[in-house]
Amino acid sequence: MAMSYRVRFWDTRERPDRRKGFEVRWTVNGREKSESFLTKRLAESRRSKLVTAARDGEPFDTRTGLPASELRALKQRTTWYVLAQEYIEQRWDRTPGNTRRTLADALATITPAFVEPEHMSRAPDELRRALYSWAFNKRAWEEDPPEEWQAALDWLQRHSLPVAELAEPDVLRRGLDALCRKVDGAAAAAKTVKRKKAAVNEVFGVAVERGYFTQNPLSGLRWSAPEVADEVDPDCVPNPAQVGRLLAAVRALPGRGPHLYAFFGCMYYAAMRPAEVIHLQKSQCRLPASGWGLLNLKGGVVTAGKEWTNDGAVHEVHSLKRRAAKATRPVPIPPVLVRMMREHIESFGVAPDGRLFRNAAGNYIDPSAYGITWGRAREAALTLDEHALELAKRPYDLRHAGISFWLASGVDPAECARRAGQSIQVLFRYYAKFLAEARNHANSLIEESMRRWEGQDGSAEDA
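The structure assignment produced for this chain is given below.
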């Protein structure tokens, strides 16, 4: 939305050949605007309001020609439901499928709360499904919503709050509180609340940009989200011996176990994300007969769901996380992983497109499938006490284990962050407890070095 203070007015023009024969004319940043009225008195009154707005220092919209105050009043008659759909339409084309799904989930959660309290939906489950699967899914707009959803959406169109009312703190709190609950009323996970609030905040940011608000009403709201525990819990991270037992258990499993042995090895020894391992191709691997190798990572495969992708495929190939489209990340790998990968290629070959890991049909490995294998390996390899600690509960904990091992080995945190594909800020936030151990180790080395030099300050002079 372009605004300008370059506003000029002309005298009211009479147009006797027209039914509305009195025309108010003005320009905004050189663009001519006009409005016509039945009587001269109405025209002069309108001109006077526009002139007063300009003298009061209001900018004018270059597209509509309206002063900012009138534009806001016009826009604030728009409902939250319409605003949310406008946002989805704006973001859709340049947004990955997984992010589309996340945005739809967040908006489907908060939108039923942005109605008058006395008009709360009697069928919240049905309304939420309709919002998630149709109202906030641009691909679904190609067809009319199913009949069972249409009534719920019609109801929402009638009762959705005007945008103007979303500046009220109580209304905003009601919406944000809704983000903290699942459909069944149970408390949502803190990370889920944080993710959904970030999406909602984006909508309000776009609303400011479009002139619905002068500033984001969420920015000054006193509301506390559930605390998110970002730090990785050391009790859940396996040590090298435990990782060795787990990987051996994977390899010993019948069926898919041997094929996923190197898959999980990549997550530990190269600290790769699962999506990056799924996407890994032979051309990205330097696997010498001896010594260290190198993986040149280029992207990852994400399960988005066919309803959310442009081509209707279940999976999407993404660039590296938070990196430019063609960015790469070289990761040195130790000899043990080099051997695992060479043996994997020798035993299983690669897919036609060069992928090292695939399911029985040759397609992308599904997270649920390798999750089942991991669960069976844990059952076979871990003790009861280790199960009670939820040690290595998720395959992703192998990545945590790999990064924490680097830190404990004294590797510079900046190099750990580079290999892991994280910012140094994220590394310090997530691995604070492991960094503390690394600092203690570093302090010991410094102290030992200082002791060796004690009493030697004057040795050179004495000589």
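Interim note for the steering committee: The CA atoms of residues 81 and 319 lie 32 Å apart. The two ends are 78 Å apart (CA to CA).
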